Amino acid sequence: MVCGGFACSKNALCALNVVYMYMIILGLVFIFQFGISCSCLAINRSKQTDVINASWWVMSNKTRDELERSFDCCGLFNLTTLYQQDYAFCTAICKSRSPTCQMCGEKFLKHSDEALKILGGVGLFFSFTEILGVWLAMRFRNQKDPRANPSAFL
Question: Does residue 125 come out as left (phi exceeding 0), alpha (psi in the -120 to 50 range) or beta?
Fold first, then answer.
């Protein structure tokens, strides 16, 4: 009796189950990674602005100060009077060098747009290599045993 190209021993059946589980897990990882990669590439500038704006107002003042110092910018976007309040309490180095600093929102958008494109591209590349892994696992799981029936390959 032949089980997927192997003699039906306990170890062979165990190996077949491991390959089967590997195919299922790799398939699920592909679906998840493909979806995330596509969403990274599909997000537009206005959605990025909305996410950055929403997260800016949730942050603590200490986190905002650290971001302003590390990115050397003041405030988020010049959309409301809250920008003037942010700019007044800004401790970035650019404020002491010149009367106006670049807004942090523009720097964040440039950085996030670049990072999302890179992450989406790399994620798509690896998601398709995972599909190749699923196909190879299926191919070798269902391989016939040439010792059992040599004419099966003709």
Answer: alpha
Quote the pLDDT of residue 89. Answer: 77
Read off the amino acid at residue 87.
Answer: Y
**What secondary structure, in 3-state letters, does 14-70 show?**
HHHHHHHHHHHHHHHHHHHHHHHHHHHHHCCHHHHHHHHHHHHHHCCHHHHHHHHHH
Residue type, position 44, single letter = N
| Residue (of 115, 109, 44) closest to 76 by Cα position | 109
- Which band of pLDDT confidence, cut at 50, 70 and 90, is reported for residue 47? very high
Q: Is the pTM of this model over 0.85?
A: no
CA distance 142 to 136: 10
